[in-house]
Amino acid sequence: EAKYNPQQIEPKWQQIWAEHKLDDAPEQEDSRPKFYALSMFPYPSGDLHMGHVRNYTITDVIARFKRMQGYRVLHPMGWDAFGLPAENAAIDRGTTPSEWTFKNMAQMRSQLQQVGLSYDWNREVATCAPDYYRWTQWLFLQFLKADLAYQKEATVNWDPIDQTVLANEQVDNEGKSWRSGAKVEKRKLRQWFLKITDYAEQLLQDLDKLTDWPERVKTMQANWIGKSVGAELSFPILNSGNQEAIAVFTTRPDTVYGVSYVVLAPEHPLVNQITTPEQAATVEAFVAEVANISEMDRTAEDKPKRGVPTGAIAINPFTGNQIPIWIADYVLFEYGTGAVMGVPAHDVRDFAFAKQYDLPIQYVIVPNGTAAGEIPKSLSQSAYTESGVMVNSGDFDGIDSPTAKTKIIELAEAQGWGKGRVQYRLRDWLISRQRYWGCPIPVIHCPHCGVVPVPDRDLPIELPQNVEFTGRGASPLAKLESWVNVPCPTCGTAAKRETDTMDTFIDSSWYFLRFSDAQNSDTAFDFQKVNDWLPVDQYVGGVEHAILHLLYSRFFTKVLRDRGILNFDEPFKRLLTQGMVQGLTYMNPNKSGKDKWIPSALVDPKDPRDPDTGEAIQAFYTTMSKSKGNGVAPKQAIAKYGADTIRMFTLFKAPPEKDLEWDEADVEGQFRFVNRVWRLVTEFVESRSSSSPQNNSPDEKGNRVLRRAIHTAIKEVTEDLTGDYQLNTAISELMKLSNALQDSKEKNSAIYVEGIESLLRLMAPFAPHITDELWAQLGHSESIHLQPWLEPDPEALVVDEITLVIQVNGKLRGNIQVPAGADKAALEAYARNSPIAQKYLEGKDIKKVIAVPGKLVNFVV
Ligand code: ANZ
Ligand code: ZN
Q: Could you point out which of 6, 36, 428, 805 has its C-alpha 20 to 30 Å from the C-alpha of 506?
């Protein structure tokens, strides 16, 4: 018999499947239910890594299982192909972003094919291809028409040496440029935004519909949206003739009687107007200083809060008190109204600020049960942030603070001091990038007409080809006069193209829609088709996309639904976030102040030492990465063991959501199992052809045991693939069945054939090549992947037999073997038909039958 040789059979089957178009989704709807299985598409960096392999294998198993179950399945793949690395490669190596990207895509496509993933390659999309981004541009124009795209000034990173805008990824931790090393400055530029804040409430509410999403992801999204319910209150400025007032946003109107001061963000436009001459110099210096601190540092709880008084005074309309107006670093201009009422007694940051600058601290809420007129001593040490009973708050004294919150908002509205307000942390989506390798924003700036959308007939606005990449100066697009200068589509005057390109998150916010109709050159997708295939039934990807990608995709879906382009409002019905693949990692801690990572290729695992110094080093598992030298290349692993073993291993080693340790010994173990299956089947095929098939003296008991093993495997594997995707335990079930077959003594019986065929069919989604090969060797002419999924026979599942006692008038007359799960009626029937009953009951009149399941049947005569 032939040895298992994955290197020979895997490419063979991959080719056969492609020739027979086994994995193509049907173009037309048919009566079968649809199933859309999708993995998050990769960035074409050049090489597939193990994280990809794991992600795609999980989805592939589900897709293959669903096909066998009789679904029409859409399982596509594509490339998230715009983005900075291609441009950097062009700058560094004299290639072009396009060349580099398409070369990488070709390389990764062939690596994907080696894994045996059942993709419909007819639907492949690359976001950087004009036939794709034409529709990205069209979608942008839909947003523009819906008033959901607009321009405003925003801050960008500016490299003063290279004279160019930098993406956040191009700025290191010390705030320096990746190329020039210059200290990066902030600059204001007019940029494009999408109005995602219009959908904040819906994006939050509809998380409740996503019952098959991980709770963790939904919580992350909810926090990102960050809804706060409170009020906007107005504090008039003294001596402005009540003309000017400062609006603050607060979630705690119940603390308004305890306000000690008002704080503006240093960027607030009122700052210049109200600062007194005595304070002008101090304020100006402070504003300049804060301009260079990051938002993170400004708001961190553990950083000291700093500020200066403006010299101006505000009035608290609730108390009539005069309070100072400050500016401080911890108040952000972009959130709420950019101004805060300071209540040191009840807010942690305000407390720290008041301590620092010796501002008054007035408690207006005390814990429930506090004696009237008393302020507990313990309070004075910190801010009291809980709810409680109102004190020092005029008419509100004595009521509980949540009720007071509502009443104070009512009072403010009645008096014109403010109103209730809901605030979201989510901000509008800045989509402008001053880069070349992205989707051009399809508008033209005309001196007469202003912003003019490019007419649909002129799409796509293609990226120009002959561009120079130096990494210096304006974006390559902005420098290309011949591309920038165009006549206005409306009036014909000399006008200029927009030179910003779109954030690549836009490209990935609709690719799952395009897959439904990827080759359409008339529209982004046919209405019928997109609404047939979508929503995605199972989406699988990394938790690193839990917030932005998923939120943006949900936003796109809702906007397109509101424009009548889609008829569903959530794109991903069910989400699985797979864990990381970890590699054995070697580290020599603290070499000249830094941990030194030592590539595993340079280390003997039995005695790990630093190859440079000979020192013993640490060994542990952590996420595979280039910088740690702990990765295992899929290509090499497949060359050694074959794709089927790699697939089985990544699925078996850990449940899909958990991290997985790449342990060579366990890969070997999986390889041995795959080999065992190979031998089991090939030996059977051989024995069958050498000895004439005979089925003499079937071993009743043995058959029953084997049948039970077969149908238990069918039942368990089906459940594991249906519920929470317990793919690891599914493989354990396959191993059990394989053991049962090995133990079977009747290797020539019909039941044995059922056993090996069932094993192969259950294993087909996991190890598609070897199973199709062995299936063919068993004499089948049609691919195993076209076979229907198996259904368990409940009868075969019956656990075991029990001994049933038969009594007549309470007297023991004998016993028989019956199936363990039999109910009362069945037990009675078994008993009546038994020779014992026939003997003792002959000619008797049965008055009553008492059946006790699992125990006895008593005939009363
Ligand atoms: C007075 C107050 C008293 C506050 C109190 C809290 C506790 P979230 O929940 O995150 O929305 N705030 C408002 N705008 C701000 C800004 N632009 N920069 C920094 N802080 C700002 O937080 C809302 C609270 O954060 C608001 O409620 C305000 O402080 C502060 F016992 O107002 B609070
Ligand atoms: Zn014009």
A: 36
